[in-house]
Amino acid sequence: MGCGILFLGPFVIVGLGTLFFSLYAITKGVQAENWIQVPANIEKVDMNSYSRKGSTSYEVAIKYSYVIGAQKYWGNRIGFGYGLSNIEDHDTLFLVLKESKRIMVYVDPDDNKESIVIPGVNDSIIFTLIFSILWNSLLLFLIFLPLIAKSRNRNIENSFILKYRIHALIIIWAIGLFILLNDYFHINIENKINVIERTKNIDSNTE
C-alpha cells in the first residue's frame, strides 16, 4: 500500500497543482472585474506557437502601457490562466488586439503594477479545472480501491461502496468529457475587450 501511494506521488502533485492553479486563476479573474479601468496603449501584439508530437499550441502575446497619476506602467497579461494552448480561439483574439490601438485594461487599485486585459474566466482555465477534477477523481479512486477491495469479503457493505464509487467515477468522467469535447462552456473572451481606438488602417478602410 505504501509503495502504491509513493508511486502515485507525482500524479498527486499534478492533480493538486492544477487544482490550485485553476482555483487561484478563477478567484483572481473574478476579483479583477472590480478593479479600476484605465486606458492603455498597445505597444506590441504577437502570436506565439509551440509544436510537440504533432500538436501545436498557440498564445497571443501582448505588451501595453498605461499611466496612473504621473507614473507609467507596463503590462503583458491578457487573462488569468490564459496561455499556450489549443483551446482558445487565438486567431480571433489576435485579430481584435492587432486591430486595436488603445484599449481599457483593469488595474489592481492596491497594486497599480498588476493589470489585465480580460477579467473573469476563460476557456483555458475552465479546461484546466475540469481536467483537474477528472484527474483527482481517478486518483482518489485508485488510492482507496485497495482498501475497499481488501475488506470487501469481510463486509458486504464495502461491495456496495465500491460499486457506488465506480458509478460516481464514471458519471464524473462522462460529464467532464462531454463538456470538454463539445465546448459546452466556450467563452468568446475577445468580445470582452473594450476597444477605445482602432488602428488608422482599420479606420481608413471603414470610411
From TrEMBL:
The chain crosses the membrane at residues 7-26, 125-145, 166-185. InterPro entries: DUF3592 (IPR021994). Keywords: Membrane, Transmembrane, Transmembrane helix. It holds the Pfam family DUF3592. It comes from the Bacteria. Residues 40-121 form the DUF3592 domain. This is DUF3592 domain-containing protein. The lineage of its organism: Bacteria, Pseudomonadati, Bacteroidota, Flavobacteriia, Flavobacteriales.
